[in-house]
Amino acid sequence: MYLIVGLGNPGKEYENTRHNMGFDVVNKLADSLGLVFDKKDFKGEYVKTRYFDNEMIILKPMTYMNLSGDSIIQVLNFYKIPLENMIVIYDDMDTPVGKIKLKLKGSSGGHNGLKSIIKNLNTEEFKRIKVGIGHSQYNVIDYVLSKPSKEEKEAIEEAQDNAVKAIKIALKENFDKAMNQFNK
């Protein structure tokens, strides 16, 4: 079984903001598979399905970003999903707008959602897909909680589509193949 997690914040005021890239990607993934988030449990919304020969859960933690790990650890433990079968998708300021970067492990890089996951799992070794939102010269919190400009939106949507493709390749084949294709 696989766990695909999109990080974000619940609530209308956070929809389509830079900080909700993870939610946006898993929403697109679910849409592409004809799925809807029909279950609420484990402090999140999720859907269970099969993709090729794999059972898969797509999760949106509803804990707010800073407590994302609280939801994820519950799903991992309940379904006994091995950590190597989890992929976390989130916004990243160090990745240029419109780009994605896949990693096998790493620090939180200051991202509060990742800090919570690392704290709950007691490891930095889990797969991730960073969706680039670029840097701001202004207040970081205001920047990540704001909506992208019209110019950025097109590039971000392409990055989100590429993240969905990367997830599908990782599940159908393997994460290394997805990394080789998208980490250019």
Q: In brief, what are we looking at here?
A:
With 184 residues, the chain is α/β, with parallel strands linked by helices. It is built from 6 helices and 7 strands.
How does this model look, in words?
With 184 residues, the protein is an alpha/beta fold. Helix content is 38%, strand content 22%. It has six helices and seven strands; from the N terminus they run βαβββαββαβααα. The protein has a seven-stranded mixed beta sheet with strand order 2-3-4-1-5-7-6, sandwiched between helices. Strand 3 and strand 4 form a beta hairpin. Helix 1 packs across helix 5 and helix 2 runs parallel beside helix 3. The protein starts with a strand and ends with a helix. The mean pLDDT is 96.
Please name the defining characteristics of this protein:
6 helices, alpha/beta, 184 residues, seven-stranded mixed β-sheet
Terminal CA distance reads 29 Å
Average pLDDT works out at: 96
Q: What share of residues are in beta strands? A: 15-25%
How many individual β-strands? 7
Question: Order of strands side by side in the largest beta sheet?
Answer: 2-3-4-1-5-7-6
Biggest sheet, open or closed, and with what strands and sense? 7 strands, mixed
| Unreliable sequence segments | none
Radius of gyration from the alpha-carbon trace, in angstroms: 15 Å
Helices and strands, in order, run as EHEEEHEEHEHHH
Shape: globular
Helicity range: 25-40%
Tell me the number of helical segments per DSSP (H or I, 4 or more residues long).
6
